[in-house]
Structures are given as C-alpha cells and as structure tokens.
From TrEMBL:
<protein>
    <submittedName>
        <fullName>Uncharacterized protein</fullName>
    </submittedName>
</protein>
Length: 135
C-alpha cells in the first residue's frame, strides 16, 4: 500500500512538471506596440506612434509580450536623454493592427476627457522601439 502511494505521488509530480515545462516562448512575425509616458509632476502626457515590431517574442499560452518592462525602459531612457526625467512609461501591444488601434484610442480618450491634460506625440522618426529577445 505504501509503495502504491509513492508511485501515485511520483506520477502526479511528473504530470505537474510536464505541465509547467510546456509553457514556451514563441516568436511571432510581427506585433504592434505604442508607449505612453506621464508624470505626476506636470500635465503633459506623451504618446508614441503605433509601431510594428518584427519578430516579437510572446508567451505561447497567454500571448503576453515578453520583456515588456524592457520596452518601457527604452521609452524611459529616451526621455532621460531628452532631459525630461521622472516619467512613468507604459507599453501596450497587440498582435493585430485593429486591436492596437482600439487600445490606443481608449487610452487617448481617457486623457482627452480630462480637459487639463496636454497630449504630445512622439513620431517614429524621433523614437523607435527595438526588439528584445528573452533570456
């Protein structure tokens, strides 16, 4: 009886391990991203253009963009180089162009509703996201 319990425990451990190992990263041919940078110290919010990333890495199960914080740091570093520090930067992404357009408009509308926010746009010529490979 005792050996049967150990055997069942080992089987469940192997199954649990195979489930966690099956989560993989995959490279998609393209993804769409944009960034938003805001500060609590002023009323200026910056939006980047919607940009196409070639060969973006996503989580296979959740379609979550991997290393998204690295993309945010790219935008944050851009502002620090322009001597505009202390920005909170977010990056939004989608795998389809129509989905990213909806996200862009939704976030932009939140700032437009608040009448005392000044929105500035950053063109792709001034700032462009670069691909980040997962480690």
């Amino acid at each position: 009886m005792r050996s049967l319990k150990y055997f069942i425990c080992i089987i469940f451990s192997i199954i649990a391990l195979s489930i966690t190992v099956s989560a993989k990263n995959k490279c998609v041919p393209k993804a769409y991203v944009f960034g938003v940078a805001a500060s609590f110290n002023d009323s200026i919010v910056y939006f980047t253009d919607i940009q196409e990333l070639d060969s973006a890495w996503i989580d296979d199960k959740s379609d979550f963009l991997l290393n998204r914080s690295d993309y945010s740091y790219q935008l944050k570093n851009y502002f620090e180089q322009k001597n505009i520090p202390h920005r909170t930067c977010i990056v939004s992404y989608a795998l389809k162009r129509k989905d990213i357009d909806k996200k862009y408009q939704k976030i932009k509308n939140k700032y437009v509703k608040n009448g005392n926010i000044n929105i500035k746009y950053i063109s792709s010529d001034d700032f462009h996201f670069t691909n980040v490979k997962p480690e």
